[in-house]
Amino acid sequence: MNSVEKSIIRDVNLAPQGRMKMDWAREHMPILNRLREQWLVQKPLAGRRVAISLHLEAKTACLAELLRDAGAEVAITGSNPLSTQDDICAALAVSGITVFAKYNPTPEEYKQHLLLTLETRPELIIDDGGDLVSLLHSERQDLIPYVRGGCEETTTGINRLVSLEKSGELRFPMVAVNDAYSKCFFDNRYGTGQSVWDGINRTTNLVVAGKTVVVVGYGWCGKGVALRAKGLGAKVIVTEVDPIKAIEAHMDGYTVLPMIEAAKLGDIFVTVTGNKNVITGAHYRVMKNGAILANAGHFDIEIDKVSLERLAVNQRVVRKDITEYTLEDGRKIFLLAEGRLVNLAAGDGHPAEIMDMTFALQALSLVYINENYQKIGPSVIDVPIQLDSQVARYYLESQGIQIDEMTEEQKQYQASWNL
């Protein structure tokens, strides 16, 4: 069977539409294009089977095709039910990549797509949120002997991997791509900062200026969301559980409050913690009429939807990706994108130039694992600094930016203890 026959997708006839979106993204991903030129000749992944679980949109498709051009046999599925784009799935299937994904599958279908991706017996994995690795270690341990290792895209997935490693159950090496400088500094901060507001603004068509925005969590993603909210003219409140991050938010000029106090003031709430139930029933009871809730964490667990549904006397969809909950006293609270990642479920995700860096790290890290998995062993490792620096330099060169280099004298001075 060819890749289209093996794939489970919505409609193969959407392929031309998906290809146009992919071509646009590729035009703005110079680092991946540079790697493609090299790897079409070198074939560093020749004969390897690669499984990918990422948000299935145009930039991800460019990564998948890069790995294919590097010689790999690639199977891909989505990492979130509402971020999968059916036209991208069709275009990938036509291009020779096996796809198991559809927009808004049932929970049973979503899991089945993950399992089918694993049944291709991957040797290398790129995961986003840890679902592939989790299934390998729980339900499909029979496939683990095939796996050399892989890479993880996001904080939530790394937390799961570290837990596996601490328990002694992790069976192969995984690279924590999310923690690389070229990822967290730019993807998490500038990518999330822009794409979250792209998703909110596109979905609501409301002004941000003059409103009070509550950013729940002040990690790299929270910093980006707060910075862009401030730039759009909002008054920004930050809630935190980490005293160091709370000080940082305070010194960055934001108001820092406990969530129960912030809940009384906010017009728009954005959760970016990676934890569960950070907005709950106690907060809904004191929120303003018309409060808007959005989540930018990986899973739809940060906003307590169960409590919101329990408190509501009426619930309806009032606009695409906006659910209105009417409470007993008549107040209305609006939830965007069912509490899933608002920047991907209600938008197109991070800008192409940002994902160019992140996906270059993914690709380079995958090649590194393929070549070094035996000496690394089962552990969670950082992206090697030389790969991080390589991506940063490629980005600067693509922008026509030059920087200085230390002289030999400066290098010797910096390396010496006897000054």
Automatic annotation (TrEMBL):
Pathway connected to this protein: Amino-acid biosynthesis; L-homocysteine biosynthesis; L-homocysteine from S-adenosyl-L-homocysteine: step 1/1
Cellular localization per UniProt: Cytoplasm
Single Gene Ontology BP annotation: one-carbon metabolic process
Reaction catalysed by this enzyme: S-adenosyl-L-homocysteine + H2O = L-homocysteine + adenosine
Binding, substrate: D128, E153, K183, D187
Residues annotated as binding NAD(+): 154-156, 188, 217-224, 240, 275, 296-298, 343, 350
Keywords assigned: Cytoplasm, Hydrolase, NAD, One-carbon metabolism
Main location: cytoplasm
Gene Ontology cellular component list: cytosol
Function in brief: May play a key role in the regulation of the intracellular concentration of adenosylhomocysteine.
Family according to the record: Belongs to the adenosylhomocysteinase family.
Protein name, per record: Adenosylhomocysteinase
Organism: Thermoflavimicrobium dichotomicum
